[in-house]
């Protein structure tokens, strides 16, 4: 698989903005909307997909729609040199949505979902029992104020020719 581009240009950003507005737009509709040749749009989309720029479609599905009404963040401290094994074990748990390596006191930040408090208890006990896990700390997500978004960054990148980022 080709490597993702080092940086998206303004045209890529405009294309991604258009897809954000209408994810099911055809290549022809995108080319008309952006004033680009159909082949240009098709080639850019293929490059973005092959480069891993576009997240999988499943990332748009909300866990609540599947009955997982609780969301929590679990920080995990791992025995030295055990990150890969613990991360692989966490990836095998369906309720684990993301695992991110951290610097600082905790080694991993794990985003999990659960049906209810009892299910969250079961899941956190399961994480704590994984070989290589020394300690966990769980924080229940109460309310999301800002959903995952890329729009503001795409807007900035789409206008990059006129206003480069400061810094």
UniProtKB/TrEMBL annotation:
One function term, GO molecular function aspect: sequence-specific DNA binding
GO biological process, one term: response to amino acid
Alphabetized UniProt keyword annotations: DNA-binding, Transcription, Transcription regulation
PROSITE patterns linked: HTH_ASNC_2
InterPro entries associated with the record: AsnC-type_HTH_dom, Dimeric_a/b-barrel, Tscrpt_reg_AsnC-like, Tscrpt_reg_AsnC/Lrp_C, WH-like_DNA-bd_sf, WH_DNA-bd_sf
Gene Ontology cellular component list: cytosol
Residues spanning the membrane: none
Presence of the UniProt keyword Repeat in the record: no
Residue ranges constituting the HTH asnC-type domain according to the UniProt record: 8-69
Transcription regulation recorded as keyword: yes
A Pfam family assignment: HTH_AsnC-type
Protein name listed in UniProt: Transcriptional regulator, AsnC family
Biological source species: Geodermatophilus telluris
């Amino acid at each position: 698989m080709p490597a993702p581009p080092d940086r998206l240009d303004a045209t890529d950003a405009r294309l991604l903005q258009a897809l954000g507005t209408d994810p099911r737009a055809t290549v022809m509709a995108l080319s008309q909307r952006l004033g680009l040749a159909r082949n240009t749009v098709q080639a850019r989309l293929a490059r973005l997909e092959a480069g891993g720029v576009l997240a999988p479609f499943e990332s748009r599905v909300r866990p609540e729609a599947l009955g997982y009404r609780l969301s929590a963040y679990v920080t995990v401290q791992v025995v030295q040199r055990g990150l890969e094994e613990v991360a692989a074990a966490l990836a095998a748990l369906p309720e684990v949505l993301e695992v991110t390596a951290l610097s600082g006191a905790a080694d991993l930040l794990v985003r999990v979902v659960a049906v209810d408090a009892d299910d969250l208890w079961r899941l956190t006990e399961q994480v704590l029992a994984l070989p290589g896990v020394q300690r966990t700390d769980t924080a229940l997500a109460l309310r999301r104020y800002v959903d995952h978004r890329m729009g503001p960054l795409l807007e900035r990148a789409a206008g990059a020719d006129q206003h480069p980022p400061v810094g």
